[in-house]
Design goal:
The chain folds into two domains: 125 residues, Aspartate Aminotransferase, domain 1; 233 residues, Aspartate Aminotransferase, domain 2. The longest helix has 20 residues. Strand 6, helix 8 and strand 7 form a beta-alpha-beta unit. The chain is of the alpha/beta class. The structure holds pyridoxal-5'-phosphate (PLP).
Length: 384
């Protein structure tokens, strides 16, 4: 295994080495990480629900009622009334006939891709789609066609050129490293025009965008139907863990029969489903979380523009600062950390070469004062 060491050392020399930090407190803006207190801007806990007392209480009560583990796959004996109720509530939330829980978003995307387009089919994906959608394409065996980021003309051209057969278009709703949004209406129109299905991965839009946080589709006035499928994750804005796919009755039944990442895995704990039900209720009821989040983003963008920072085109809580060179981004992230502020540097291969960035993400649990502290630290790091 000498080759592993060589490759690891090369990775370190290239400034691409990844390592984990050790958190010693719950997911909140003020966190104890690697032995020191800091202000964190790197979670996907957009609504501030991960450590919310009502969500934690639902997890506790759920564990008392259902135990710690589900003990089996959904198709054996792992599917409880808690999972079932959550599926019904999620379907109702996004306006779909049905929803199906998966253990993670990664597995949900793999499951849909593996079950849907047959080998002879074509899968059209935005170049910047999440890794799980791209990995799903490999598993499906269908031909992968990648189109330029958000470029509907490019997609249209590629659809028109493709031979007849099954087609599926897949796109992130909100792009995880850029914070920009897919043109959902145009995607849906192209899908209809070219007899393609559409899978929208709304990991970063659900809970954040649209009325009551119903997501990117709802913001565009659309709901899942026979041709539009929605994948939503529960570990981001909803603060818990897991994912779901929403769509037609026939889609959900197909996934239950054929999605291997659904069939061959243990159902998530029922207590987690109970916690998610509590989180979903808070998400629906508390609009102030989304309003506050928007005001934090506005304050940050105004302040960053004053500092002449290079913002990206984003109105979501994901606010990347484009730095460019990988080492420069790493150095800035380290300098911020020395000032007690946690902002991760995102490097290739997660983003294209030469587009390293600081990925700042906001949560409804942040205060305006937190944003000011971040801006102050960014200002002093930039001056150096
Ligand atoms: C996080 C993420 C996923 C994976 O979801 P998990 O539940 O964390 O596995 C899928 N797609 C996108 C766009 C994501 O950001």
């Amino acid at each position: 295994m000498k080759d592993l060491r060589t490759a690891l050392e090369q990775r370190r020399r290239d400034g691409l080495y990844r390592s984990r930090r050790l958190a010693e407190s719950p997911q909140r803006p003020e966190r104890r990480i690697d032995g020191r207190d800091c202000l964190s801007f790197c979670s996907n806990d957009y609504l501030g629900l991960a450590a919310h007392p009502q969500v934690v209480a639902a997890l506790q009560t759920g564990a008392q009622r259902w135990g710690a583990g589900s003990g089996a796959a959904h198709l054996l004996a792992g599917h409880t009334a808690a999972h079932h109720a959550l599926e019904e509530e999620l379907a109702d939330f996004v306006g779909a006939p049905r929803a199906l829980l998966f253990s993670t978003g990664y597995m949900a995307n793999l499951g849909v891709m593996a079950a849907l387009p047959r080998r002879a089919g074509r899968l059209f994906q935005d170049r910047l789609n999440h890794a799980s959608l791209l990995d799903g394409a490999r598993i499906s065996g269908a031909r992968l066609v990648r189109y330029a980021h958000l470029d509907m003309q490019d997609l249209q051209r590629r659809l028109a050129m493709a031979p007849a057969g099954e087609r599926l278009i897949a796109s992130d709703g909100v792009f995880s490293m850029d914070g920009d949004c897919a043109p959902v209406e145009a995607l849906a129109a192209l899908a209809t025009e070219h007899a393609a299905g559409l899978l929208l991965d709304d990991a970063h839009g659900l809970g954040v965008l649209g009325p009551q946080g119903r997501g990117t589709l709802a913001q565009a006035g659309l709901t899942p139907d026979a041709d539009i499928m929605l994948m939503g994750t529960l570990g981001k804005a909803l603060g818990t863990f897991g994912a779901f796919v929403a769509g037609s009755e026939a889609l959900i039944e197909t996934l239950i029969q054929q999605a291997r990442s659904y069939v061959y895995t243990t159902a998530p704990p029922a207590a987690v489903a109970e916690a998610t039900r509590a989180a979903l209720q808070l998400c629906r009821d508390e609009n102030w979380r989304r309003e506050h989040l928007q005001s934090l983003v506005a304050r940050f963008r105004a302040g960053a523009a004053e500092l002449d920072l290079v913002l990206m085109e984003s109105s979501t809580p994901i606010q990347p600062l484009l730095i460019g060179e990988t080492r420069a981004a790493t150095r800035m992230s380290e300098a911020l950390e020395a000032a007690g502020i946690l902002v991760p540097a995102i490097r290739p291969p997660t983003v294209p070469e030469g587009e390293a960035r600081l990925r700042i993400s906001f949560s409804a649990a942040h205060t305006q004062a937190d944003v000011d502290r971040l801006l102050e630290a960014l200002g002093s790091v930039m001056r150096r």
